[in-house]
Amino acid sequence: MPEDRDWEAYKVPPTRTPVSERITSVPNPVTVLQTVFNYVIDAPVTFVREWIERQQAKNKFYYYHQKFRRVPDLSECLEGDYLCFFEAEAQWRRDRMVDQEIVEIVRERLGACKQREGPNQFQNCAKEMEQLVQVTKAYQDRYGDLGVHGNARSCLMKQKHRMMEERKAQANASQ
Q1: Are residues 128 and 106 in contact, defined by beta-carbon separation less than 8 angstroms?
Q2: pTM for the whole thing?
Q3: How far apart are CA 20 and CA 22, in angstroms?
Q4: CA dist., res. 101 & res. 113, Å (int)
Q5: Alpha carbon distance 169, 70 (integer Å)
C-alpha cells in the first residue's frame, strides 16, 4: 500500500460519539408510551399467562396416551337410534384409517428391508413379506370392494354375506 493516503477520501471516524444533551425538561413521549404499555397491557397479560402455565404444569396432560372408549358397533345399535348410527360410522372411519396406516407401515418396513438386504431380500425379508401378505389380505377382506364411498353399513353387510358363504361352503363340504 502506498504511504500517501488520501485522508479526505477515507476519513477516520471520530473516536467518541458525542452524547446528545436534553434541551427540554419534557420526557420523551416514546419512553412514556412504552412504560404505560408495559404496565397496563404487558404486565397483566404476562402474569395471567405465567399463572396458567403454572396450573398446566401441575396437571400434565399427555394426549397421545389417551384411551378413548369404543362405541357400539353398528350391529349393536337399536333401530332408529341415529346418534348410535353416527357414532358407529365415525368409529368405523377411524378404524379404517388405522388399518390403512398399519398396511402402510408394514409396506414401509418391507421396503426398508429390501433396501437394506439388497440381493438377499428374498431370503432375509421373508418374514416381512409374509406379514404384508397377511395384513393386506385382512384389509382386503374387510374393506375391499367398498370403494371410496364405503360406510359402516355396507362393510357390515359385506361381512355378513361372507360369513353366510363360508357357512354354505362348510355345509356343502360336510355332506
Answers
A1: yes
A2: 0.58
A3: 6
A4: 18
A5: 33
